[in-house]
Amino acid sequence: MAVSAASVAGVFAERLGPERLVVDPGALSAAAIDGHTPRWLVRPASIDHVAAVLAVAWDENLAVVPRGAGTALGLGPPPSRVDVLLDLTALDHVLEDNPDDLTVSVEAGITAGGLAERLAGRRQWLPVDPPGWRRRTLGGMTATNAAGPLRARYGTLRDLVLGVRFVQADGVVTWGGARVVKSVTGYDIPKLMVGALGTLGVVCELTLRLHPMPDAEQTWLATFTSVEAAQAFVARVVDSSLQPTRLELLNEAALRVCHAPSAPFGVAVAIGSAHPAVREQGERLAALGSSEGVRIAAVGDNVWTHYDTALAPAEGEVVLRIGSLPSRLADTVKVIERALPAAERAALITGCAALGTLRVAITGADPDTVRRLVEDLRALTGEFGGAVVIESAPTAVRTGLDPWGPVEPATLNLMRAIKQEFDSRGVLNPGRFVGGL
Amino acid sequence: MDAVLEIDLPNRCAVVQPGLINLWLTTAVSDRGYFFAPDPSSQMVSSIGGNVSTNAGGPHCLKYGVTTNHVLGLEMVTGAGELVRIGGKAAERPGYDLTGTVVGSEGTFGLVTAITVRLLHTPEAVKTALATFASMTEASEAVSEIIASGIVPAALEMLDAAIISAINASIGKIYPDAADAVLLIELDGPRAEVEAQAERVATICRRHGAVSVTVAADEMERALLWKGRKEAAGAVGRLTSSYLLQDAVVPRSKLPQIMREMKAIAARHRVVIANVFHAGDGNLHPLICYDDRSAEELERAKQANEELLGACIALGGSVTGEHGVGLDKAKNLPLQYGEADLNFMFRLRRVFDPAGLMNPDKLLPSHPACGEGFRPKRPVLPAGAWI
Amino acid sequence: MAAVTPDIDDLRLCVHCGICLPQCPTYRVLGEEMDSPRGRLYLMRAAAEGRLGFTETFARHLDLCLGCRACETACPAGVPFGSLLEATRSQLAERGPRPRAALLCRLLRGMFTEPRRLGVMLGGLRLYQRSGLRHLVRATRVLALAPRLAAMEALLPDVPSAPALPELIPAQGRRRLGRAGLLTGCIQRHLFPDVNRDTARLLSLAGYDVVVPRDQGCCGALELHAGFLDDFRDRARSLIATFPVDLDVIVVNAAGCGLAMKEYGRWMPGEAVVAAFAEKIRDVTEVLVDAELPLGPLDLTATYHDACHLAHGQRIRAEPRRLLGRIPDLRLVPLTESDLCCGSAGVYNLLEPEVADRLLSMKIDRIAETGAAAVVTGNPGCLLQIAKGCQERGLGIEVVHPVTLLARATRRAVK
User: Fold this and answer.
1) Structural domain range at position A269
2) Boundary residue ending a domain (C97, C115, C139)
C-alpha cells in the first residue's frame, strides 16, 4: 500500500531515531547523485536499522542508494531513481578482532584508513590500496571491488572477503561465507556480493582475511622510452623468481605526479619481504635490468604516498578501468595515446602490469573524445575478452555511453535473472549496474 | 574432456577442459617454470573440473589460496540449458562475479565445460622441514605461533601417531615412528626469504617442545615427505577398513583446544581418530575409524563425528573447508547458516537450475517442513505506523 | 577344486582413495570407474560377499584388466590387487559365463604355453614368412575381418631358427658365484632364442655355472592370469621338477614368468619344495647388476621401458637401468611414463586388440619423443608389442632386451 512521504519519514524516524534521518532540502540537494536529489537521507547505526529501512523501501517500492565515503558514486550510469540515500558511515565498528588468526570482522562503513590504523601496531594489514583508499569505506570498496597496485601480490577484496552480512532488498538480514580463512560450506555468497554495487543486498558486515606485513618493502623504478620496452621488461620480471608486491606501469604524466624520475614510461617494482630477501631481490632486479639494458634505480617509498594522493578520485575527472592483458599492455596504451589529442595527453596512465589492468585518469576531456577513446579501447579489448569500465566521469559523459560496456547476452541474462530473483522490485541501486540492472 | 586447450604463459594462464587431471596441468607447464597452485592431496587423481566444483584446497592453499583464487573464467551449461561464458583471461570484467559464484557450487548450477586458470611462477627456493613433537597439543601450539608471527608457510601440515604408522607401513619409514605428532612445514619463495623464515620456524617449533626439526636435504627427500602426506588417506587402509573423513575448520588459534576436545570425544565414543590435516589454516581432517561390519561401531563413529563437528562450529569454524558439502554434510548446514541464509542459497540455485535437475539433494539440506522453504525473517514493522 | 576365493580382508584394505586411478592403463583409456582398480575391487568385493553374481558384465570388466599391477605400485594401503584378480578370475573360470574371449583364451593357452607345440607352429610360420604368403595376406586385408588374428599376425617378428642351448654352460674365468638355473620360457625360446643365449653367456661370464634343463616346460603364468588354477599348478609343479634342487638361483629373463614363479608359494601354500623353488627366482638383471662383466663401448642412445611385471610386480626398476648405465658410451634417456603398460600383457593384445592398440599408441608417442635409437625392455611380450608399434609408425627404432645390449657390449670389450 502506498503511503505518504511523511509517513515514510515517520517510520524512519521512529525506527532509527530522528537524528538519523535528514529531510532538510538543502542537505538533500547537496547529496544529489547525477542530479537526482534523494527524498530521504538516513544514517543507520546498526544492521537492524538498515533492515528496517529496506523493509519499508521494499513495501513502498522506493529506490535505495547505499553510500559509504561517496567516492565511487560516479560508477555506473546515472541512477534511474533515488528515493533513499543510505549513508553507512555510522556503521564503522570493528566487531571481532582475531589477531592470531589474521582475521577481522568489521562493519562496512569503517574506512580502510581506520582499519589500517587499528592493525598497524601488530604489523598486519588488509593489502588493498585503490588510490585514496584511506578515506574510502570497506563497504564501498567491496561493492566496487576497488583495487590498487598491491593487487599484483595480494589480489583484490574478492580474495580477502571471507564472510558478509548483508540486507536483502526486502529487508531480510542474510549471512554468507565464514569466519575462518577456509570454507566451502554452501555457496560462495561473498563472491557474489563483491563488485555487485549493492544491487543484490546492502553489505553491512565483512569478515576479512588479513596478511602479515612484510618486514621491509623497497621500491625500484625502471624507466623506458617506449611502452613496448616496458611491457617486455614486465614480462621478464613476471617470468623470473622475483616476487614483487607491486608491479605498476606509469606513463610520463603519472611519473610526474608521483615525483618520480622523468621518463616516457616507468615500471615501479616494489619488493616486500624479510630484510635480506629484499636486498637480494633488489640485486637480482638490478642484474635483470643491466642484462636487458634497462635503467633501474631505487626510489623512496613515498612514491606510493604520492601515487595515492595524486591519483585519488577528483571531481570532474574521467577515470577508466581497463581489463587488458599483460601481453597487450603496449597496444592498449597506444590506443589511449592515439585517441587523446595533444592537449589531453596529460592523462595519467597507471596499472597493475602483472595482471594487465590499467587505469586512465583524464581531466578536462570533452565527452566526444572520451566516447571515442572508450569505443576504441572496447574494440581492442573485445578481441581478447577484456573490458573497459568508466569508473567515474561527469554525468554528461555517462549519459548515452554505457559506462560498463557490453556483456555477452547469455551471461547478462543470467545476471538479470539473479537480480530479478533477489530484487524484483528494483529497490537497490536501480539502473546503475550492467545492462541497466 | 581432458584436454589442455591453451597455454598462454605471457598472460600466465591456461584454458583446460574439466576432465583434465590436476597434476597434469602442472606437469604440462613445469618445464617452463610454472605451476597450477591448487594441490588437493588427490591431485594425481582429481580433475580440475572436480576441483572447480568443490573449490578444492590442498596443503599449499595456505599461502596460495584455494581453487577459486586461481580460476579466471568458466564456460558452462547452466541447469536451464544455457551455454554461458563467464569471466576470462582479463582480470577486470563488469557485472556479477559469476565465476566466483559458480566455483564451489558442486555441480548444482550446471556443467562446467571449460576453465581458464591462473598459472604461477615456480618459486625460486623450497625448504621442507619435519618437526617432531611429543604431543598434538604442543604441535598445535607451534602452528598457532607460526601463523601469529606473520610467517605464511607454503604449507603447514600435521600428522598424528596413527597416521604416521600407517604411512610408514605403506611407503617405508619416512616419519619418526615414536613421534606423537609431526609437522610438515614447507617454505617457498625467494631464497633469502626462505632461509630467514626457516630459522624462525625452527626456533618456534623448539620453543614449543619439538623433539627434532630436520630439513629435507634434497628433492628426493622432499618428494618422499610429500608422498607420505599425499597418500595418507589411502594408507589408512592399513589401520581400518572404513572411516568417516571430516573436513571441518576451526580458527587456527583454536587448534590446541580442538585437539584436546577431539581426544575426549574419541575416548567417550571408543573410536580411533587419526589425524592428518592442514594445520596452517585450521582445516581438520579427522579420520574416524570404524569396522564396516559392525553397525554399532558405525553408530559410535557417527556420533563422534557429529559431536566433533559441533565443537568446531562452536569455536567459530566451518562445516567443510575444502571437500565440499555433497550429500553427507548437507544436513549440517543449519549449524552454520540460518533460515534466511539458506533461503538465499536456494533461490540462487533456482536461478541457475530452475527445474532442479543438477545434482539434486547435494549441497543444500532439504527442509523438513516443505522440502525447500526456509523462511527468512523480515523485520517487523509497527502495524499501521503510517496509515 | 581349482577356484580360490579372494581374501576378504585383502579386499577390505581398499579405502577408495583413488590414487590408483590415473595409474591404471585401462582407466586411462576407457575412463570408466568399473575399469579402474578401485571399481574392480568394489565389484570383486560385491561378488565375494554375494551381493553380485558372476555376470557377463562383471566378467567383462575383469577381462579388460591387463593385470599390469600398476595399481599395486600406487596403492598406499597395500591392496594385493594381482592376487585378488587372479583369485576372482579363477572363480569366473569356474562359474562365470564363457564368452568368445574365454574360448579363444583356451585355444591360445594350448598353443603358447606348450613350448613344443609352439615350436611346430612356428615352423609353419617361418614357411609362411618366407613364402610370400604373408605379403598376400597383408595385402588382401583378409585379416581385418578377424581382428584378433590380425593382432597376432602383426606381432610376429622374423623368427630365427633356434638350436637348443647345452644343458650345462660352465662359468668362464676364475670367479665362481654358484650354479644358476635358466628358464628358457615358451615365447622367449622360440621367438627370442638369442636372448636366452645371451643370458646364458652373461651369467657364465659373471661366474655362474649355467644349468639349462632340457625338458623344462611352461611356468603357467598365462593360465594363472586367466584363472585356470589347476592347469597352472600342474605346469608349475612339473617345471619345478625339471630343475635340480642344488641350484643357487634360478634366472628368468621374462618379467611375466619371473613374477608368476616368485609367487608360486601363494597358490601352493604349505608345499616346501615350491617355496624353496620360488625363493630362488631372480630376474636376470637382479643377478647381473653387481656382477663383473667386461663391457665395451656402445655408441647408442637408448631408453628403457619398464615391463609391468618387473616394475610393478617385482619392484625392479633400478637394476636394469644401472646395468645399462654401465655400458660405456651408451646414453640412457628417460622415457615419460616408462611404467605405463604398452598393452601387451601376456595375451591381452590378442584378446583386446583395441585397448591394447590405444595403449601401444600412447607408448610409441612417448618413445618417439625421446629420440632414442633403441628401446630396452625385459619382457618378450613388451618386445613384440613395442616392435610392432615402432614398425607400424615407420620408426627405425631397435627394440631389445637388456641382455642383448649387454652381450653386445661384452663382445666389444677389449680382451
Assistant:
1) 216-308
2) C97
Any idea what the CATH number is for the domain that residue A236 is in? 3.30.70.2190
Contact between chains at B320 and A195 (C-beta distance less than 8 A): no
Chain C closest CA to B201's CA: distance in Å? 30
Last residue of a domain, one of B100, B121, B142: B121
Chain C nearest CA to B155, separation (Å): 21
Residues B290, B242 contacting (CB under 8 angstroms)? yes
Give the DSSP per-residue string, B212-276. EEEE--SHHHHHHHHHHHHTHHHHGGGT-SEEEEP--B--GGGHHHHHHHHHHHHHHHT--EEEE
Are B129 and B275 part of one and the same domain? yes
Q: Which range marks the domain in which residue C333 is found?
A: 300-412
Q: Which three cell numbers stand for residue C353?
A: 586388440
> How far off is chain A from B266, nearest CA to CA, in Å?
24
C neighbour chains, 3+ CB pairs within 8 Å = B
* CB-CB neighbors (< 8 A) of A142 in chain B: none
Answer for the pair C77, B170: CB distance below 8 angstroms, yes or no: yes
**pLDDT one-digit tens code per residue, A187-222:** 999 999 999 999 999 999 999 999 999 999 999 999
- The beta-carbon neighbor of C13 closest among B232, B237, B292 is B237
pLDDT at B370: 41
Q: Are residues C59 and C44 in contact, defined by beta-carbon separation less than 8 angstroms? A: no
Whether residues B53 and B103 share a domain: the answer is yes
C-chain CB neighbours of B21 within 8 Å are: 22
Q: How far apart are CA B322 and CA B385, in angstroms?
A: 48
CATH number at residue B243: 3.40.462.10
Per-residue confidence (pLDDT) for residue A137, from 0 to 100: 98
According to the model, what pLDDT value does residue B382 have? 58
Q: Give me the number of domains chain C comprises.
A: 2
> Which residue among C14, C31, C77 sits closest to B170, beta carbon to beta carbon?
C77
- Are A62 and A113 part of one and the same domain? no
At residue B309 the predicted structure's pLDDT band, cuts being 50, 70 and 90, is very high
Residues B167 and B264 in one domain: yes
Binary contact (B320, A183; C-beta < 8 A): yes
Please report all neighbours of B, defined by 3+ CB atom pairs within 8 A: A, C
